[in-house]
Amino acid sequence: MLNSLSGRFLVLTIVFVMLAEILIFVPSISRFRLDYLAERLERAQIASLVLLADDMLDTDLESELLQNAGVYNVVLRRDEVRQLMLSSPIPQPIAGTYDLRMASAVTLIGDAFRQLASPANRIIRVIGAPVRDAGLLIEITIETAPLRMAMIDYGVRVLLLSAVISIFTALLLFAAVRVFLVRPIKGVVGYMQRYAAAPEDARGIIQPNAGVIELREAEEALQKLQTELTQALRQRERLAQLGGAVAKISHDLRNILTSAQLFTDRIEMSEDPLVRRLAPKLVNSITRAVSLCEGTLAFGRAEEPAPTFSHVALCELVEDIVESELLAPAEVAVDLVNAVPKGMMIRGDSEQLFRVVMNLVRNARQAIVATGKTGSVTIAARDDGDAWWITVSDTGPGLPKRAHENLFTPFQGSVRKGGSGLGLAIAAELIKGHGGSVTLSETGPEGSRFEIHLPKGDGTL
């Protein structure tokens, strides 16, 4: 109950209303005390006027007048003369004097709460102005015990009334919140749960109908999100189906092309000059088609595992790559330069980093070989304190502008004839698993440079 929105709203409403009532109680208890004393002054004045009307009142009648007024003595000042109008024995000395004529609100509030805090019965003198200007002032002496009891009784009644008002108000607000807020929110939650159970079912999409502006905006935002998500899920399903179909086609096509490769072996043995001249081109075309099919199948099956982080000696890793590439036959000499500082250690998955750097080096070397001119590929690295940077730069012809936008997109980023464009896409995916990125920082007639950014993060060297 208390953990719900309406339950907490109920408790907060009771608390806030009680605080408001307490703030009202402070001046009201002061006002009650003032009215109490003013009433005693008025009664005393009436009793003194009776004495003025008849100077011959006996002692019993005077005592009765004082008792009815609730005072011990009455002093009336008229015509600059101070007269003790009514008097009776005072049981103890006067403990304090309070002049109501010039008292400020702060003074009255302070006197009221000091009175509540003092349980002792004392005698006090109270001075006020007579009613209807029947003199300059009137002064009485009274006990504080009856005043304090009356204030306590009044305060208890006020607090009980405040509690009743707070609870009644809170219940009304609780019902209002349940109707105007909680019920619509539960409706939105219900739509979300139904949609989560079957996101492909368009019937689960919310239809905005809330009357509250903020809730309606939330419903409209949810409706837009659900609509877009449903469309995305449908598109994903279509793409998955299309991917499965492509994989099947590629598999069958690879088998067909493999058989065609066997036939080309026989064709190359032909003595016909035309056949012998065209056969290599046919073989190359079939080989590229087989490579594309195998790449497509490999990419469709690829589920790269999360990198296994360890400390990697980068210079030694690059040296292995250089040695592997030098074994590959090439019509043009390409220098591979390992410019990584010796002893440099980085944190990453050594196998995945090997594949990424190897891919970039091989692409750079093949680009230079395609020009028919000699060139060089340089692998370098640096540490800037926050990250490691690995660069692969070449002196090749650079990349055409059309390749820049889709450089890391599968099947679209290849700039080499017959290439599938999967190498850079896979490399970018592997580095992304390290929290980093692969970017083409420079390209032009003087060559290209790729940069691998590996942030250090936690647990670095």
Averaged pLDDT: 78
What characteristic shape results from the CA principal axes? elongated
- Strand line-up across the major sheet: 2-1-5-4-3
Number of individual domains: 3
The DSSP helix count reads 9
The arrangement of helices and strands along the chain is HHEEEHEEHHHEHEEHEEHEE
Question: In angstroms, what is the radius of gyration?
Answer: 49 Å
Low-confidence stretches: none
InterPro entries: HATPase_C_sf, HATPase_dom, His_kinase_dom, HisK_dim/P_dom, HisK_dim/P_sf, Sig_transdc_His_kin-like_C
Keywords: Coiled coil, Kinase, Membrane, Phosphoprotein, Transferase, Transmembrane, Transmembrane helix
Biased composition (Basic and acidic residues): 448-461
GO molecular function, one term: kinase activity
Task: Write a brief structural summary.
The chain is α+β, with helices and mostly antiparallel strands. The chain contains nine helices and twelve strands.
Task: Please tell me about this protein's structure.
The protein is of the alpha+beta class and 461 residues long. The protein folds into 3 domains: 5-168, no CATH class; 226-301, Orthogonal Bundle (Helix Hairpins), CATH 1.10.287; 310-455, Histidine kinase-like ATPase, C-terminal domain (Heat Shock Protein 90, 2-Layer Sandwich), CATH 3.30.565. Helices cover 56% and strands 17% of the residues. It contains 9 helices and 12 strands. Strands 2-1-5-4-3 form a 5-stranded mixed beta sheet. α3 (105-117) links the parallel β3 and β4 (123-128). It is elongated. The model has no long low-confidence stretch (mean pLDDT 78). One of its GO terms (molecular function) is kinase activity. Keywords: Coiled coil, Kinase, Membrane, Phosphoprotein, Transferase, Transmembrane, Transmembrane helix.
